[in-house]
Amino acid sequence: MQPITQKAMAPDIIKKVDDAGVIAVLVIDEVKHAMPVAKALLAGGVSAIELTLRTPVAWEAAKAIKDELPEITLGFGTVLTVEQVFNAAKVGADFAVAPGCNPRVIAAAQDCGLSFAPGVVTPTDIEMALEQGCRVLKYFPAETSGGMMHLTNMVAPYNYLNLKFIPLGGLNINNAANYIKSPLITAIGGSWIAKQEFIKGEQWTTITQNAKEISQLIRNIRSNKKD
Asked: What is the CATH number of the domain that holds 34?
């Protein structure tokens, strides 16, 4: 069998996501909060963000972050339509992710050069993604689907393909290590670092502290792997 080539996510973006180790999932309700929350995350060592398309200001918030903080690896989440893919590319997003695996959306991302990770939770999902040339996949919803045990068993037949996963859904500082330790994981994603209520309440210190905590955990685990 010919090796599966990665067409859906650029190598430089894969490296940025892997180096980050964690992606902060954000719901921003007001554009004025875009820069403060991004700076709070950076101060805590988190350099990758997923802005969910659940509020009308997400596009404007993303543009503000891209213009002022180019060191942020910025992606969009809950990308469900071809139009959203094109808009994400136009804004200059580094990547996008989806909760499911829609071949039309994946194809649109490839057409406009937007790195894309579709969502998978079953072997059928994985094979649909592989058919589209995807090798970095979003595992969603992670915890309620069986966590790392489910992912490890599900991926076993595909291990020779060197797939990598970004788990989201139910992750927090208490269970993050279960995922970070696995060679299947390139980065974890979670909203607990900068909850919507924290952003609305302008709790930047809390967000920075949460970012520092997960960043330190990732460093410790990765350091132990090298020893």
From this structure: 3.20.20.70
Q: Domain count for the chain, please give it.
A: 1
Q: Which residue has the tokens 């002022």?
A: 68
Catalytic residues: 50, 138
Give pLDDT tens digits along the chain (227 positions): 344 556 789 999 999 999 999 999 999 999 999 999 999 999 999 999 999 999 999 999 999 999 999 999 999 999 999 999 999 999 999 999 999 999 999 999 999 999 999 999 999 999 999 999 999 999 999 999 999 999 999 999 999 999 999 999 999 999 999 999 999 999 999 999 999 999 999 999 999 999 999 999 999 999 997 76
Residue 206 within a domain:
yes
Residue linked to tokens 């974890």: 188
**Side-chain-side CA neighbours of residue 71 (13 Å):** 10
Inside any domain, residue 127? yes
* Contacts (Cβ under 8 Å, ≥6 apart) of 178: 147, 148
Q: What is the dihedral of CA 182, 183, 184, 189, to 10 degrees?
A: 60
2 lies in a domain? no
Domain range spanning residue 185? 11-226
Whether 82 is in a domain gets the answer yes
Cβ neighbours of residue 120 under 8 Å, at least 6 residues apart? 101, 126, 128, 129, 137, 138, 139, 140
